[in-house]
Amino acid sequence: MEKEKNNEELICFRCQIPLVLEKTFFNYLDHTFFTDIPTCPKCKQKYIPESLVKGRMAEVEKELEDK
Amino acid sequence: MREFQKLLQQDCLRDEPPFCASACPFNLDIRDFISKTQRGSFSTAFRLYQNTVGFPEIVAQICPAYCQNVCIRQERDESIALKKLEQASIAYTKNKRPNRYHLPKKRQKVAIIGAGLAGLGCALRLTARKYEVVIYEKTGQIGGGLKDLMTEEEYLPLIEEQFIHDKYQLYLNQRIETLDELEADAIFIATGQSGDHFGFENREGATEKKGVFFFGGQHPVEKLASGLSMAAAIEGYLKSDVMRDPVKPEPTRLKMDPESFPIQEPQINLTENAILTQEEAIAEAKRCLKCQCDACLRHCDLMKFYGKAPKRIEEEVEITIHPGTLDGDGTVATRLIATCNHCDVCKIVCPQGIDTGLFLLQSHRAMEEKGAMPWVFHEFWLRDMEFSNSEDAKIYSLAPGSTKANFMYVPGCRLGGSNPEYVKASYDYLLKEEKDTSLLLSCCGAPALWAGDIPLFDSVLADIKEAWQSFGQPQAIFACSTCQRIFKDHLPEIEGLSLYEFMDAKNFEPAGQVKEQLCVFDPCQAAGHAEMQKAVRNLAAKTGLIMEEKDDVIKCCGWGGQVQIANPRYFDGVVKSRSADSDLGFLTYCANCRDVFNADNKEAHHLLDLLFNLNIDEENKLKRRKTPGPALNRLHRRTLKRDLLEQFFGERWEMKKRNLKLYISDQLKKKLDKEMILPEDLEEVITQAENSGAKVVHSDGAFSAYLIIGQMTYWVKYRIKDDGFLLENAYCHRMSIGD
Ligand code: SF4
Ligand code: SF4
Ligand code: SF4
Ligand SMILES: [Zn+2]
Questions:
Q1: Searching chain B, which residue's CA lies closest to the CA of residue A22?
Q2: Atom of ligand 2 lying closest to residue B303 CA
Q3: Is the Cβ of A23 closer than 8 Å to some Cβ of chain B?
Q4: Does the C-beta of B18 come closer than 6 Å to ligand 1?
Q5: Do B706 and A53 touch (CB under 8 A)?
Q6: Contacts of B671 in chain A (CB under 8 A)
Q7: CA of B289, closest atom in ligand 1
Q8: How far is CA B664 from CA A47, B655, B677, B718, B724, in A?
Q9: Overall average pLDDT of the B57-86 stretch
Q10: B498 and B361 in one domain?
């Protein structure tokens, strides 16, 4: 819908501290993989931008469905 | 599960030879010959012909053209002039010398009795394989019966030419009295009908005496074919000491409908001796259908999309369900399995009635049972079914004020989702005709069946059956042909008929007239129901509608099987292809067909629009109505329940209160519809985030939060606005965030 702002500063609402990139695991159809995702260092709240969802993540999803 | 493989092996005609080739004594690969000719590659066509018939320039003159007697084209126009094409291949090939084979010389010797075409053909093959061959001929010339068809001056050089690389020994005027005189490892008796038969019965093939073979055929061409094929049987014997008959062309089981191809008269000079020009030959070859059973491939959208015939599909599906049992090319057919529309087209068009769709349904179920079918292909539809069958939308009730029921109206879930008026108007009508008509408003379970979730499907059926029994087992009236099909196959004890047949039988008079011309689009599930199709046309005609008929078998609009998420590209292609079937708008009697077409900007109207005057303007024109997106479709089902209960049963029904007030721009609404994201799911994301505080704050002050609903992860970006929330964006992903 809107342009993703790169390197936008995101704040965790509960902990009121900035999110930092952190290795995050994903699961789909019995497969696991990981990538770096903005994460609250304290409570681990995550944020995934739409560009990642529609880009690389959608690609991997499709690949796994065809496996 | 390998039953389908067996069925295909026995019944599928895909690998059957074309009519012409199975009548050809040489079993010439006519499809290949034609392909080469079509490309103008006369010399490769000639090579194929030469390698098959042995003496091409003789056969091309004397063959009675068995193929042309059986060519399917003659049922439409004219048989393909194969003989002329063979002559053309000779005329346009410069180097006609036979191929030379470099093989080691064999020690064994074969004696042939008779130098007619059978003996010569056998000798030609065996000498090329480097066996020592001796022919004994009782007369003073070679060629046998050939002399009645050609002069010796004509045929002798043509025979000689084929033996330029490998020679045989010939003894003319040498009559053989008994086989014992012959010193040979194998003997071929090729003496003709009137010649010596040495006490063997007149039967082509391996005789009861080891090493002795007997010719077959009447016409010299048939004898030649016999000799050529016998050479292979003789060589087989010499190598393995086993006596076998030669392989002969089997009669084909191929079936083709002459109506399935257009008339195309030949554009060539058909007089006996005229040789075709190259252009004529190519044009004539292009008339050939290269007959092969492709009825399913031509009609099934799935087979067309993947370019795969049932045998190939079976193999790939098998490997997908049982990986490791076979080594295939590793193609995984999961998505293919989930792409079937379950429209029955394959079964209907197959001359053998082979039901590939049923095989795919069973395979889908097997994959689901193993947990190998991606949940995302069906989760949306299963949740949608759950909604239809929940208190939010479902009504099971006897008619207002009734204690019994003769009829039970089954509108289905999608009809009211498309337009609640369809259900209200039709139920109103039914109550006026039959005041004891009970109502069964829910989803028939098709989504569970298509998803291969049989326990779930069974539970939906059980629920329906219980209601039907509590109503006193009335007859069902179906507005949706998918419901009707599901009941017929899985609840056969419930008898029923379509709403349209009911209305037609009751001589329904439509509320208004239309000044329109539409093309009738029968839904795929109506394919076997001639009565229903007729009733629909009768009813539509009463509105003044001018109807055009499609020139094709009944096919799916794309909706069947709910394949849209599993294979969006396929789905779009099917919708587009159906839309192109007519320039006119469609008249249909399935809410899904109506909605699928309108969503793709193809005009389509439901018969009920016409009959109940639902979308007709003052000038008797039908109004276009947009397809409700997933959110509106749900809302329709909610309001339908409320309105039906109020209007017919005098009950007040409170629709479930929405948790939150959401402000969504039209642009975002469109996106959500397209991505099949329901605002009510987004409400849950926000509620959860607001309650727990689990959200992030963007630099512009907006929040983002996520929640897994079902197995899908939904993200929302939003702000607090007045008494509610302003949605800025939403999206979802299939993979889940691990811990
Ligand atoms: S149309 Fe072609 S392939 Fe079919 S029977 Fe005739 S010659 Fe053979
Ligand atoms: S049911 Fe329809 S889509 Fe499925 S294989 Fe048969 S023809 Fe193709
Ligand atoms: S229509 Fe298809 S499945 Fe049926 S016989 Fe022909 S090739 Fe085989
Ligand atoms: Zn935090």
A1: B739
A2: 8
A3: no
A4: yes
A5: no
A6: 1
A7: 1
A8: 22, 21, 13, 10, 11
A9: 96
A10: no
Does residue B699 lie within any of the structural domains?
yes
Residue B328 has pLDDT above 80, yes or no: no
Best substitution site from B346, B449, B489 to test ligand 2's pocket, by max atoms within 8 Å of Cβ?
Answer: B346
| Dihedral angle, C-alpha B184, B190, B195, B198, nearest 10 ° | 40
Q: How far is it, in rounded angstroms, from Cα A60 to Cα B85?
A: 54
pLDDT, tens digit (0-9, with 9 covering 90-100), for B317-327: 999 999 875 55
Per-residue pLDDT at A1: 38
Spatial distance between the Cα atoms of B516 and B398, rounded to a whole number of angstroms: 38
Predicted confidence at residue A2, as pLDDT, reads: 43
- Pairing status of strand B205-206 against strand B212-214: antiparallel
Distance CA(B281)–CA(B491), nearest Å, equals 59
Same domain, B449 and B543: yes
CA-nearest residue of chain A to B699?
Answer: A9
Terminal Cα-to-Cα distance of chain B (whole angstroms): 39
Residues B403 and B479 in one domain: yes
Contacts of B733 in chain A (CB under 8 A): 48, 53, 57-58, 61
What is the pLDDT, as a whole number, of residue B104? 93
Which of B591, B647, B596, B601 lies closest to B624, judged by CA? Answer: B601
Under DSSP, is residue B416 helix (H, G, I), strand (E, B) or coil? helix
Q: For ligand 1, what atom is nearest to the CA of residue B82?
A: 7
B300 & B275 share domain = no
* pLDDT tens-digit readout, B283-293: 999 999 999 99
Q: How far lies B574's CA from each of A65, B336, B445, in Å? A: 22, 15, 24
Q: Identify the pLDDT of residue B325.
A: 58
Percent of chain B with pLDDT over 70: 99
Out of A8, A12, A29, closest to residue B374 by CB: A29
Same-domain pairing of B358 and B342: yes
Query: What is the SS3 assignment for B157?
Result: helix
What is the predicted pLDDT for the residue at B250?
84
What is the nearest CA distance from B573 to chain A, expressed in angstroms? 19
CB contact under 8 A, B693 and A14: yes
The closest of B716, B721, B730 to B687, measured between CA atoms, is B716
CA distance from start to end of chain A: 31
Which residues' Cβ are closer than 6 Å to ligand 2? B 300-302, 340-346, 356-357, 360
Q: Is A17 on the interface with B (CB under 8 A)?
A: no
**What total number of domains does chain A contain?**
1
Query: Using CA atoms, how far apart are residues B685 and B668, in angstroms rounded to an integer?
Result: 17
Q: What distance in angstroms lies between residue B728's CA and the mean position of ligand 4's atoms?
A: 22
pLDDT in tens, B151-195: 999 999 999 999 999 999 999 999 999 999 999 999 999 999 889
Measured distance CA(B187)–CA(B204) in Å, rounded: 13
Task: State the count of interchain CB pairs (< 8 A) between A and B.
Answer: 90
pLDDT of residue B344 exceeding 70, the answer is: yes
Per DSSP, chain A holds a count of helices (H) and strands (E) of: 2, 3
pLDDT in the model for residue B327:
53
Same domain, B537 and B426: yes
Predicted pLDDT of residue B329 = 54
The Å distance, Cα B570 to ligand 2 centre, comes to 13
- Asked if A13's CB is within 8 angstroms of B736's CB, the reply is no
Q: Give the residue numbers spanning the domain of B697.
A: 662-733
The residue among B375, B570, B734, B739 with the most chain A CBs within 10 A of its CB, best to mutate, is B734
* B114 & B206 share domain: yes
Quick check: A45 and B736 CB within 8 A?
A: no
User: In 3-state terms, what secondary structure has residue B520?
Assistant: strand
Asked if residue B211 and residue B140 are part of one domain, the reply reads: yes
- pTM for the structure as a whole: 0.88
Verify whether the Cβ–Cβ distance A45 to B734 is below 8 Å.
no
**Taking phi first (over 0 means left), then psi (-120 to 50 degrees means alpha), and beta for anything else, what does residue B205 get?**
left
